C-alpha cells in the first residue's frame, strides 16, 4: 500500500507551478491514499478553502486531512466563535479523523487551537481527551501499522533552531509508546526529516514533511513523502522540488519490530 504524505499546502500563499508538479506527481505515482497534515490554507478564507477543495477533488485517490494553525481565521470574531467553521464546511466535518485500510490504521488529531497559554498561538496542543481517543483507537486496531497524524510535530530536527513541539508532549509520547504507534506524521516546520525513538522492543518513526507547495520556505525547497507498506516493511521516499518536478533525495527502509502486542496477564 502506497501513501503520499503532503503538508502545509498554504493555499493562498502557494506557487502555482509547484502545485501543478505536485498534482502531476501524485496522479502518476498513484498512491492509494493522500494524507495532508494541516495548514491547508494560508489565512483560512473562503476562497482558499474552495481552492483546496478543488485540489482534493481533482485527485483520483482518497484523501485524509487534518487542520493546522493556518486553517483558523486570524484575529477576528470568527476565530473565537466558530474557529473551524470554514474548514468543516469546505473540507470535512471531523477534525480528528480515523481510517483503517489494508495494512494501516490511521488516527488524525487536531492540534490547532484558537487560543493557547503561550505568546505564540501558532503552536499546538493535544488534550487529555484526545490522548484517550488515540488510546481507544489503537486498542481496537488490528492492522500491523499504526499511524498518528498531527500538524504540530513532537520532535525537532537537530538543525532546527525553534522548538515548535506540541504542548503536553510528554504524556502524548507515553501514549505513543503504550499504544506502540509505528509512525507519527507531522508538518508545520516546513522542514522534512525523520527522527526515531526506540522504546524497549518498539521503534517509532517521527516523519515530518516540508511544505508541499507554498512559497513560505525555511531552508528547504518544497517536498513531500511517499510511504510504501507491506505487512512488515516500510520504505519512505522523501521528495524535493527542483527544476519543475519532484524527485527523491533520500529513501529509508524500515522493518517493523513486532506486529503483535505482547500478551498481557
Ligand atoms: Fe505551515
Ligand atoms: Fe503550521
From TrEMBL:
Pfam families linked to this entry: Metallophos
Calcineurin-like phosphoesterase domain location: 1-191
Protein name: 3',5'-cyclic AMP phosphodiesterase CpdA
Gene3D superfamilies on file: 3.60.21.10
Record-annotated membrane-spanning stretches: none
Superkingdom in the source lineage: Bacteria
GO molecular function: hydrolase activity; metal ion binding
InterPro entries for the chain: Calcineurin-like_PHP, CNP_phosphodiesterase-III, Metallo-depent_PP-like
Record-stated family: Belongs to the cyclic nucleotide phosphodiesterase class-III family.
The entry's keywords: Hydrolase, Iron, Metal-binding
